[in-house]
Structures are given as structure tokens and as C-alpha cells.
TrEMBL record:
This is Putative ABC transport system ATP-binding protein. GO terms for molecular function: ATP binding; ATP hydrolysis activity; transmembrane transporter activity. SMART domains: AAA. It comes from Longibaculum muris. Pfam families: ABC_tran. Residues 6-246 form the ABC transporter domain. InterPro entries: AAA+_ATPase, ABC_transporter-like_ATP-bd, ABC_transporter-like_CS, MacB-like_ATP-bd, P-loop_NTPase. Belongs to the ABC transporter superfamily.
Length: 255
């Protein structure tokens, strides 16, 4: 059994393979994650952050190299197995929420449990308990378009967490939220990380949000260019280091 919850080796992603638009977005990245880490991925726009996070989390398949989650090579799974693996192990939080507009919040949140064929009584109990925790229990019969951005985001989080995943993948999760809701979401992620050792891999462009992580991974031009571990730094010291890294990188970009 590996000491890592997630491992990627020599990860390469080429879009438009063998076409005139062929573009290599990731160039042979090696990456490991230990259970309970809270990782923030930063980097300039177009550097490959979303491609990276999608390719390490079964959303997309790398062109070459391999990814193992819980020691299982995701390339060896059929699409049916990947679907099952996802709702058993991974929770996704996206910037645009990705809720289904034709389904109520209840149905949206229940989806991973329905897919796992959990029985109806248990589904109702678990959805209600999760909705209560996120303060949206009064909204379960509403449709996403009847809810505010913050409420929709909380429903998306409830859906991501309902199956108690060991890994949460979050791509700019606070991107569409005001500062109060961003703060709440961050506190929730931090709590899950601290109380349940849930592993979090999050993309953010905001150094303050990044300062809640335990490790910063800076991606540039399809490579991991730098990593900073928080270790014994205070959050403020860590934040300063992240700000310095970002401003040094943007200065280099404009020189
Ligand atoms: P980031 O998340 O850092 O903004 P992305 O991972 O979205 O970057 O994109 C990395 C690079 O890959 C960019 O140059 C982008 O234009 C390109 N890219 C992303 N998705 C596709 C795609 N589906 N087809 C072709 N090129 C893509």
C-alpha cells in the first residue's frame, strides 16, 4: 500500500492530438499527495491548472503517464467503473456549481447517493442532515434558479460532500461568490480537512484563500514550477510568501 492517496507520474496532456491545433498543455508532471493534505494550485491563466486538476481526478484522461488514486491506476477502469469510483471517493466543487436546473436542490444533492443505489429512507435522512449543516434545509424543494449564488454553491458543496469523499477537488470554488460566502466556504473546507482529514486539492488565484492550504503548487506553462509548504509558518508568513511568489512571477511575465 502506497503512502500516497494520489500519485501522478509523467503526466502529459495533449489537446487536439494529431490535428493542426495540437497543443501540449501538461509536460510530464510528477505529483504526489499524502492523505489529509490541503493543496492549493495557483498559476497564471492558461498555465494548465484546470487541465491538471481534471487529469488527476478522472474528469479527463492524460495522453500519457499515469494517475493512481488509492493505488488504483485510473486508466485500468472502464467508464462505468470510473463513475462508481468517483462517487465513492471524490467530491467535486466547481466555480459554476454544475447543478442540474431541471432538478430540485434535494435531487441534486441526492444524486451521488442515488447513483450508488442507497435506499430511499437513508437518502432522505442524509440529504436533510447535510442540508441542515449547510443551512439550506428550507430550500430543498426549490430549483437552482430560484436560489441565490451562495445558496446554489452550498447545495453544490452538499452534493460534493454527501458521500463523505476522502478527496475533494475544487476548481476556483469561490470564483462566483461574494466575500462572505467565500469565507464560509473556505471555513467549511478547512473544517473538513482538520476534523475528518479530508484531502483537498483546490485551484485558486487568490493568495489569501491559498494561505489556508498546507501546500502551494505553482503551475506555469504546463509544468509545476514551484511548491511551498506551510509547515511551521504562521498563516500570515505563508500568505506573504505566496504573495511574493505571485508578484515575482508576474514581474517575470512582463519583463
Ligand atoms: P488554466 O486553468 O491555468 O487557466 P487550462 O488548463 O484551462 O489553464 O488551459 C491550459 C492550456 O490548454 C491553455 O493554453 C488552453 O487554451 C488549452 N486548452 C484547455 N482546454 C483545451 C481544449 N479542450 N482544447 C484545446 N486546448 C485547450
Amino acid at each position: 500500500m502506497s503512502e500516497y492517496i494520489l500519485q501522478a507520474k509523467n503526466l502529459t496532456k495533449i489537446y487536439g492530438l494529431h490535428s493542426e491545433n495540437e497543443f501540449e498543455a501538461l509536460h510530464g508532471i510528477d505529483f504526489t499527495v499524502t492523505s489529509g493534505e490541503f493543496i492549493c494550485i495557483m498559476g497564471p491563466s492558461g498555465s494548465g491548472k484546470s487541465t491538471f486538476i481534471n487529469n488527476i481526478s478522472t474528469i479527463d484522461m492524460p495522453t500519457s503517464g499515469w494517475v493512481r488514486i488509492h493505488d488504483i491506476d485510473i486508466r485500468t477502469m472502464s467508464s462505468h467503473e470510473i463513475g462508481k469510483f468517483r462517487y465513492q471517493n471524490l467530491g467535486f466543487v466547481f466555480q459554476d456549481f454544475n447543478l442540474l436546473d431541471t432538478h430540485t436542490l434535494f435531487e441534486n444533492i441526492a444524486m451521488p447517493l442515488s447513483l450508488a443505489h442507497i435506499d430511499r429512507t437513508q437518502i432522505i435522512q442524509r440529504v436533510q442532515a447535510m442540508a441542515k449543516q449547510l443551512n439550506i434545509e428550507q430550500l430543498l424543494n426549490k430549483y437552482p434558479y430560484q436560489c441565490s449564488g451562495g445558496q446554489r454553491q452550498r447545495a453544490a458543496i452538499a452534493r460534493a460532500l454527501i458521500n463523505q469523499p476522502q478527496i475533494i477537488i475544487a476548481d476556483e470554488p469561490t470564483g462566483n461568490l461574494d466575500s462572505e460566502n467565500s469565507h464560509e466556504l473556505l471555513m467549511l473546507l478547512k473544517k473538513l480537512n482538520e476534523d475528518y482529514q479530508t484531502t483537498i486539492i483546490m485551484v485558486s488565484h487568490d493568495p489569501f484563500i491559498a494561505s489556508y492550504s498546507s501546500r502551494l503548487v505553482y503551475i506555469k506553462d504546463g509544468y509545476i514550477e514551484q511548491m511551498i509548504k506551510r509547515e511551521s509558518l504562521t498563516q500570515d508568513e505563508y500568505f506573504q510568501k505566496i504573495v511574493e511568489l505571485n508578484s515575482a512571477e508576474s514581474r517575470r511575465h512582463f519583463q
